[in-house]
Design a protein that fits this description.
243 residues, 13-stranded antiparallel sheet, 13 strands
Length: 243
Amino acid sequence: MQGILNLVKVLGFACVLFVVLACPMITSASELSTQEILEKLKTHQNKIKSIEAEFTMTLYGVDKLQIEQTGTFSYTAPDQVRMEFKKPRPQVIKTQGKESYISINNGPFKKIPTNEKLPGGSSDLFYYRFIKQFYLDIDLKNKPSEGHLYKILGFHKNEDGSLADSTSVLNQKACEFIYDRNQGLISRLNLTGHGSMPPIETQLRYESKNSCLVPKSVFTRVITPGGAISSVVKLENRKVEKK
């Protein structure tokens, strides 16, 4: 069971439901820089005060694994998240800042152990805080065919701003994401792991509620040596409150 709980946390809202300080790179007078992209993600994050939603999460993959879970999701700015699972068994996972806690079968909350090299991101709705941990560069050699999409590469940096090496890199040593200029949000995020961390692929879809774009569905695939394990989270957003 602990393995599944850990998987749920990793897949989460990919959540896991993530500003770089490097010099912005401007591709042309009419195009965005990486700094501008990050500022737009920050604007979305700062616009929302709270979210209340119902969710269905399905895990499937290796050895015909298929687990369906349902429950409620709530977010309170700036970094409070609560996922209450109702089926197949009651449990609650809550995040407060960088710390996460779990309660199973209405028992007391216990802190979920976290790897010191695995930064939290489950309360980062639009990946702003997560992505600012990377040096970012717009990939001009492999532009998406759609003009409103940007492909961006990121490489992990240390707290002092230097490029991380094998001794200081976090588990997510690199990222690659697609930014949709029309929405001002990320539609795809791929992570390259360091050490034992497997590659992770995430696709995101949004919907407009109370004039705010909020996550509607999150598909995540973790590629392990034994095969891929996938998660599909679908949200029924009931209430979105703006600041």
